[in-house]
Amino acid sequence: MSHFLEMRGIAKTFPGVKALNRVDLQLARGEVHVLAGENGAGKSTLMKIMTGVYRADPGGVIRVDGQDVVIRDPVHASALGISIIYQELAVVNNLTVAENIYLAREPLGAGGLIDSRRMNADAKAVLAELDMNIEPTAKVGNLSIGQKQMVEIARAISYRSKLIIMDEPTASLSHHEASTLMRMVRKLASQNVSVVYISHRLDEIFEIGDRVTVLRDGETVDTRPIGDMTRDILVRKMVDRDMSQLFGKHNSHATRDVLLSVRGLGLKRPTLRGARVADVSFDLHKGEVLGFFGLVGSGRTEIMEMVFGSRPSVGEIRVEGQKVSIREPSQAIDLGIGFVTEDRKEMGLVLGMSVRENFSLTHLSDYCTMGVVQRRRETNACRAYIRSLGIKTPSPEQKLLTLSGGNQQKVVIAKWVARKPRILIVDEPTRGIDIGAKAEVHALLNRLAEDGMSIIVVSSDLPEVLAISDRVVILKEGRITGILDREDATQERVMLAATG
Amino acid sequence: MSVSDNKATLEKSPARIWHDLYQLRHVREVNVLIAMLIVGALISLWTPYFLTTNNLMGVFRAFSLTAIMSIGMVMVIVTGGIDLSVGSAMGLASLVTALCFGAGYSTGASIGAGVAVGIVFGLSNGLLITAIGLPPFIATLGTLSIGRGMMYMVTRGVPVTPETPDAFSLLGQGYVGPVPVPVVIMLILMVLFALIMKRTRFGRHVYATGGNEQAARLSGVKTNRVKLAVYMLSSTIASLAGIIGFSRYLTAEPASGFGSELDVIAAAAIGGASLAGGVGSVTGAVIGAALVGVIANGVVLLNINTYAQQAITGGVILIAVSLDVLRNKLTGGNG
After folding, report:
1. Does B332 map to a domain?
2. Average pLDDT over residues A160-169
3. Of B208, B218, B221, the CB nearest to A339
4. In this structure, what CATH number is given to the domain that contains residue A492?
5. Alpha helices in A288-334 (DSSP H)
6. In this structure, what CATH number is given to the domain that contains residue B128?
């Protein structure tokens, strides 16, 4: 079989992290090759090496068309015939379809002016080649997300690409648009273009792929024709790892009393982007750690934002049996709910303020006498939390800006824990922090549950969810597809409910 | 690096004190104050008249109204907003007060009517910004024009000069010892609002709202209420300045306060306020107004073309803010 691209022994090291360890990948011409793996398995790093964004560590071999190459940068990659369609669309909305396709290499006519007629004609030819029914002169801003993606594919084709990488192309498409895309991918393959297809959706993987390569922890663990693969094997290959031993099992402190009860929760105004969350119902018991697991776009964060009142919702929320209306975060906070947000820089912290000021923001009244802040009391409380959470900062007066990610995260947790909420929602509590800090955060959550706090942990890190939760709620495309007790929640079962 | 570390205070060596004083160079207010003293020293080298009590008190009174308005403005700017309507709020308040005196109302009622103008301005700005969601620049630009238009409509371009009781004119013309009353009011407001901004829960919420509105809201700060409050304070303080101004000249001009929003914003910016929000101080804004006032006085005393004054003020803004930006770049930015 003649290969367009061959990669052998590819590794990539970032300061402190080995993102790719030993990756082998062969792409045949006209093949649709699925790349599967969990978040953090190394898919994006591998893609970025293929497109010249990153340079692989020395020692590996990359061959394009049988020639050894070092892919220097994205321009070089596209000269070699490698294109990528990113998850976030890279089109300019107020330009036309043709202008987008030929952006930065517009055909020029007399006097250096753009030859629009030729550009539109060329664009029309490319679109026709792909059976795309889009006018070259249409404004891209007026197109649907699916059509915009088609424009990107047309741009890739117009470069005479021999390899097109698609990163979760159907993540934001409707069902109909997704099937159009599938047809397009087949068409590309029939024209001898190789496609690397990255997806979390199992249905799609089996529908579109010729072969599949599974990545796990930066290594190729398997490559085989799709006909020899089953869902069970695929999922097991993706999730099986030793990491789970790192986090000791904790003891459950859950009681039978329902503290928070959510029924029929859904978005008030569904948006085009993001998950269409609807009909979400679950209970949270006193002292329970309830895990929420789902892939990107499953609506994990949206649900928590609705419970916390920062996103408009429909449905019923009860706290201790009392029906409540939560339309503002301050109302949720008054009901005893705390929310450690996923994005600490944008939503969790005021980076220009000190550790002390960030820490006390959620419960400043505790240190106030008639509206005046008692600095000494505030500082002392802050020092106590700095000590008990092991926050590494020279003083409470240090600006948050200068702290490391793990320490910033601990400040966010401290500011909520100090408020002593009954319910603490933590969204991706350990994203972007090192393994030691991660274990500390897990121990802390366990301690809080022991003291009777109810905790919701949202995470895309499956071993983490399984290690610290009493029960796991599994989400897929904005709906709950399963609620499992910890005894029943194996990696395979959870992954299947999240993707299958 | 706390400048006043409680435990160390008792046993401070002289070296330690010098070190602490040296740390003060990082405080914007101190820098502007030093700049002002240098400018003052230079002026007094040229003319002995500058350092006379008479002249200095005149200088203080001259910038006191701008300084008073900058106290409200800086709170708005710290939330990440801007209030362009202060000049109109000031002017309309002075006009309404004048009209009430003219209609024979008591001093209390007339002042009350002027303050009410400020409250209406603030409520309109605040609601346009929080309830409708207009950008502060647009909302206050609109109320600026409406206010100014109403002044011209009511006066038809003619100044209003009513009979007023003698006691009322003390507000703008009186003295406490050698110090003019407007300056006393300025100092009282400065201390009051400096304490509010630095020591109270409300002040902390103002800084948090400007520093990261989303994070503040998710921490339980009622950010819309905070914003409504600062716009109400800004307009109300501006109306107070209008009433004091009317008391000084006892005539309300249709153009009174015209363009003063720019002086007020300049004072806040020179005093260290960042238009991006989250940074700024009341004392800084007042010192910023003082620096501009001293320069204006120097221009007059040194017989420089008075039209040059505006150009010099512009230069001061650019230099002050550039120095701040550069310093932040060099030190890795804290603010």
Report:
1. no
2. 89
3. B218
4. 3.40.50.300
5. 300-308, 329-334
6. 1.10.3470
- A357, B212: Cβ pair inside 8 Å? no
Model pLDDT for residues A101-141, shown as the tens digit of each residue: 998 888 888 888 999 999 999 999 988 888 888 899 999 98
Angstroms from B276 CA to nearest CA on chain A: 12
Count of C-beta atoms within a 10 Å radius of residue A394:
10
Q: Do A352 and B221 touch (CB under 8 A)?
A: no
Q: Is B221 part of any domain?
A: yes
Are the beta carbons of A329 and B217 separated by less than 8 Å?
yes
Please state, as a whole number, how many other Cβ atoms lie within 10 Å of the Cβ of residue B333: 13
Question: Whole-angstrom Cα distance, residue B300 to residue A428?
Answer: 63
* A26 and A101 in a common domain: yes
The ipTM is: 0.84
Q: How many domains does chain B have?
A: 1
B40 domain residue, yes or no: no
Q: Say if residue A369 is in the same domain as residue A493.
A: yes
Put simply, whether B218 touches A (Cβ < 8 Å) is yes
Taking CB atoms and an 8 Å cut-off, how many pairs form between chains A and B?
Answer: 88
Give the pLDDT mean for A471-500.
89
Q: Determine the distance in angstroms separating the CA of A350 from the nearest CA of chain B, rounded to an integer.
A: 5
In this complex, is the C-beta atom of A356 within 8 Å of any C-beta atom belonging to chain B?
no
CB–CB contact B215 A348 (8 Å):
yes
What are the residues whose beta carbons fall under 8 Å from the beta carbon of A468, sequence distance 6 or more?
A247, A250, A289, A291, A442, A445, A446, A457
Domain end (from A191, A223, A240): A240
If DSSP codes are grouped into helix, strand and coil, which group holds residue A122?
helix
Mutation target among A326, A331, A353, A401 for the B interface, most CBs of B within 10 A:
A353
The pair of three-digit structure tokens given for residue B295, joined into one six-digit string: 């320069």
CB A475 within 8 A of CB A498: yes
The three-class DSSP label of residue A253 is coil
Query: Which pLDDT value is given to residue B11?
Result: 56
Say yes or no: A133 and A13 in one domain.
yes
Which of A333, A357, A358, A361 should be substituted to probe chain B, the one whose Cβ sees the most B Cβ atoms within 10 Å?
A361
| In a shared domain, residues A165 and A269 | no
User: Is the confidence at residue A274, as pLDDT, over 90?
Assistant: no
Examine the domain organization and report whether A219 and A286 are in the same domain.
no
Distance (Å, whole) CA B21 – CA B27: 10
- Are B297 and B62 in contact, with CB atoms under 8 Å apart? yes
Please name the residues between 257 and 286 in chain B that touch chain A, using a CB distance below 8 Å.
278-279
Identity of the residue numbered A155:
R
Beta-strand relationship, A194-198 and A211-216: unpaired
Domain end, chosen from A240, A266, A295, is at: A240
Over residues A34-91, the pLDDT tens digits come to 998 876 678 888 999 999 989 999 989 999 999 999 999 988 998 999 999 876 678 8
- Is the same domain home to A444 and A463? yes
Position B333 scores a pLDDT of: 42
Separation in Å, CA B7 to CA A337, A387, B13: 38, 20, 13
Residues of chain B with pLDDT under 70: 1-12, 25-26, 330-335
- B window 122-141, beta carbon within 8 A of A: none
Look at chain A and report how many structural domains it folds into: 2
A303 and A156 assigned to the same domain: no
Distance from CA of A164 to the nearest CA of B (A): 39
What domain range includes position B188? 49-323
Instruction: Give me the domain span that covers residue A351.
Output: 245-499
Is there a contact between B214 and A346 if contact means CB atoms under 8 Å apart? Answer: yes
- Per-residue model confidence (pLDDT) at position A273: 55
Q: Is A323 exposed, middle or buried (0-12, 13-18, 19+ CB in 10 A)?
A: exposed
Chain center to CA of A63: 31
Is the Cβ–Cβ distance between A192 and A29 less than 8 Å?
A: yes
Cβ contact A350–B215 (<8 Å): yes
Euclidean distance between CA atoms B143 and B121, whole angstroms: 7
